[in-house]
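Input record (one chain):
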Amino acid sequence: MANETYVNYYEKGEGIIASFPKGKKPRLLMHVCCAPCACFPLTYVCEHFDLTIYYNNSNIYPFEEYEKRLGELKKLLSYMKRDYGYDIPLIVPTYDYDAYMKDLRPYASEPECGKRCWICYRKRMEEAYDYAEKEGYDYFCTVMTISREKNSQILNYIGSELEAKHPHTKYFYSDFKKKNGILKGVEMRKGYDLYYQKYCGCEYSKLAREKWDAKKALENQNLSK
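The corresponding structure, as predicted from the sequence alone:
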């Protein structure tokens, strides 16, 4: 993937916002994976956009986990309305884990944050981008650039490629980690007592986390002897 040249996507996003006519809020569809990741980005984008959230995350395993994260997102949206006055619409397409994973299973042996994950990012972003284009949104973006575990250069590169396929909906470049975005999000998540998942979503990330937890538990056990 051609992401060798570093781009400051936070500044690029700020430049896009600066270009808006005064008093005008373009319509933005944002892909959101979970409430903890959404905390800070929602407060940031709602200042500048008329926001709608798209929760298309058929990668999440098992279904009970998917429902739990969706429930926490709905809880966050109620807090956003209560505390900030933002009434943010939420769109939830049909969950279909088996169909979603057909493209990822050939890459089962890939490590976390490798090629399998890049395919997963693109699948969800493209599905949401298609909806944004069909429904006439001005911009599309993903909340995933807030995550420490996800490469914002790759996510924005994918966004730029998708923008070329969607002539009516522009891509909003972001790096929500910047300017203490992560710390602000953590403070909000803790303040709202939101559930904080231990793994990204799919069965492979779940298994990787379980193996890591088991390894750390064994190391701590050996240290205590």
